[in-house]
Write a structure and sequence with these properties.
globular; two-stranded antiparallel sheet; Na+/H+ antiporter like fold; mainly alpha; 204 residues; 12 helices
Length: 204
């Protein structure tokens, strides 16, 4: 039992499992059966994760947290200002070396991206942090990133060969993140006992 207590968090273990599966079975992303593929499984997983977060939300804490605008501004500033500027500081070191420029653009792109919604909330949950704030800021970050990330990337990429569907991205965020949380919160009086009974199994 002592050995089990020393094992890393299951979420971390599953991350390594996912990396191993992707390495040994790279074609799994192409698997499909009647329009049911890996992306469908991922979408269902994300929806369930945020549904269960909705079951545990305390609405008084949610409204209190939303009023803490200084914290939200700080989080978004770190995401969309501090990280890109930090990577931008290294531009003078690579601009004269074309062989490293593509790698630098890739790193800068990662720095300019919004936070990953599911990962952000899961990590905060593991750390026993402020989950309502994590959900709010991760969701807002996705919306802000629709505008800010292309602006940052325009510093290096002057042309765009593709089209971007803003409405589809917004609906995707609402249907997979906000709506499941809202439904879970509405069902809390009826299913809250179920979550509390098995919260250790849910891992949050």
């Amino acid at each position: 039992m002592k050995i089990l207590n020393k094992l890393p968090d299951p979420f971390i273990l599953f991350l390594f499992v996912a990396i191993g599966v992707a390495y040994f079975f790279p074609d799994i992303s192409l698997w499909s059966y009647k329009n049911f593929n890996l992306n469908t499984i991922i979408d269902i997983g994300v929806i369930l994760v945020f549904f269960f977060y909705g079951l545990k939300l305390n609405w008084k804490e949610v409204f209190k947290d939303l009023a803490n605008w200084k914290m939200h501004v700080l989080i978004q500033s770190i995401t969309f200002i501090f990280f890109p500027l930090l990577v931008l500081c290294f531009y003078p070191l690579v601009k004269s070396y074309p062989i490293y420029f593509t790698l630098y653009i890739a790193i800068f792109y990662l720095a300019a991206l919004p936070s990953t919604v599911s990962s952000s909330v899961v990590m905060v949950s593991i750390a026993k942090g402020n989950i309502p704030s994590a959900i709010f800021n991760a969701s807002i970050s996705g919306l802000i990133g629709i505008v800010i990330t292309p602006l940052w990337m325009s510093l290096f990429l002057s042309k765009s060969d593709g089209e971007f569907d803003l409405l589809a991205t917004f609906l995707d965020l609402v249907l997979k993140i906000i709506l499941p949380v809202f439904i879970g919160a509405l069902l809390q009086p009826y299913l809250g006992f179920f979550y509390n009974k098995y919260k250790k199994q849910f891992g949050n």
